[in-house]
Amino acid sequence: MEMLLILAVFIGYAALIYHKFKINSAFIPVTIITSITGIVYIFGLANQLELSVQIINIAGLLLFIYFIVQALRKNFSMKFFLCPAIIFFLIGALYFGFLLKDLSYFHYDNFTHFGKIVKEMFYFDSLPNMNTTITFQNYPPATAIFIYYFCKIIGYSEGHALVAQAILVISILATFLWKDNLKKVFFNSLSFTIIFITISMLSFDDTTLHIYNLLVDGILGFLASASIIVTYYYRNDIKKNVFVNLPLLSFLVLTKDSGKLFFFICILFVLFSNTQLKAFKKNIKELKIILPLIILLVWVPLLFSSSWANYVKKAYPSTAYESNKFAISKSKLKETYNSHSHEFVKTLPAKFINRVFDIHSINTQLLISVNAISILISIIYYILLKKRASLQLKALALSNCMLVAYLIGEFLMYLLIMPEAEAVNLASFDRYFCSAIILFASTQLICGINSINKLLEHITTANNTNKRRPLFEKLLLLLICCMIILPNFYIVRTGMKQLFIRPNEQEFRRIDVKKACEKVKNYLGRDESILIYNGDKDNTTGFYLALGKYEMLTNDLNVIDVNLINSDKKKFLEFLAKRNYIIMAENDEIFWNELNNNNIKVTNEKDGILYKIIHENEQIRIEKIA
């Protein structure tokens, strides 16, 4: 029932955008989603998140009823839904709805921020503030806001949050099918090929597909790619360009701080590609229309970005901006740089360059193969048409310049913002690099489709007519698809495999910890004091600490392991003394032997997951609950 409500609201707004503004069907899903996010965000600044959802739904339903009536009276046609982009969007949403609805989070960053912000927004019906346990307080919340809207209708669960993010991704990818005609088999086939390659790139983030977590790095690349497609498609119509790009770019800058770099790249593309703007000298009246729209396109997203910065200052009055991990200020940059060792600063450039050009990296492989494909298309184009493939060459130059600019920014982040303990290993490098590579690859390949289409029209024209040779076209289509896929076969194969096979939840102890935390919350209270034991597994203390804080929505929690027991028995006993419950993420004899050595009694079996720590007359007793 809830999904039907969302579908009705979507149809209502889609019909309005198509009928009133005559927007390409491929751009409608992402326009609806980014616009809804912007509206909910504005209401959120006034602490009225729930009200915004109600208003959006009521308005959407009224539009749905209106256009259904108009369609029954034959005053309006719903045939615009029968296009590749909308069909792709609806099938993708349906597929991911079934794939993800019962799934749980596994990625560490879901528990430190991306999953936590969604959970707390739903819990408090507000943007993050002093009442929440968000650690990265200045992280922009765009994706979380849309997930909040979606879950407010169908109900909150981790699986539903993943479905919402997947729908967001599918809506962006639908823009790649901008020729809204099912008969454009050649174009649509190549576009689907590019979609498969770009979405497969997301499978190389910590070995899990982005679809199975709420991370936003890949979404940045997709959003910027969609903006460039919209700009190219509406290069002769600045009004429609601004109409679609305004919510899209506002969403982009509210997705992550690094989205501002992508934003400026997209704005430059608007300025250089718009034919009306180029001709303003010939028609000064046209400039009076175009210039305010360009200013609006720049000003509104920046206003959204600055409003978030102002909100953070008001929401966390006792927290200095510089205390945020990735805060950017003159004092913070200077402090971070001065804290770096001389050896780190000296070796960072070489280490960074080596990672960029690491031939074993999937990002680097795609970088090389896409450049090679663009050059090959340009050469073939010149040989057969006796003229330069200007669009392809511009895309080649622009995307490489963009990539260099992005990499310079990423290098400065490691040098001036990130703590040395993380920067020394170039933490999350592949994930950050992936954002730019997605934009880099999709820009070149989408322009490549256009060049190939022109090439095909030239080659297949017989006797100066527009008749095509179907067999030749099919063979050429097969050849070009192979040319694009084969260099990236490993990427596509791995990505597609993960796209159709869910992670095995039994491999993660997280499910047991989740159930134990839920038992504590549901029967004992959210404020109960928790201790987690994670045994002798290496590098899991931070994970269980983040997981426990996420499950209990508290920062008052400790994790102990074998190393602590062996190195600091006093602290181990102090933790037991001040906590009420202990969750056994790992169950081993070392823990129970240590309790025995300190004369701590254990009631019931030692094979449980949740135990109560009972304090009696300065003595401690452990009792199994579950």
TrEMBL record:
The keyword Transmembrane applies. The keyword Transmembrane applies. It comes from the Bacteria. Keywords: Membrane, Transmembrane, Transmembrane helix. The chain crosses the membrane at residues 26-46, 53-72, 78-100, 162-179, 185-204, 211-234, 289-309, 366-384, 396-417, 429-450, 471-492. This is Glycosyltransferase RgtA/B/C/D-like domain-containing protein.
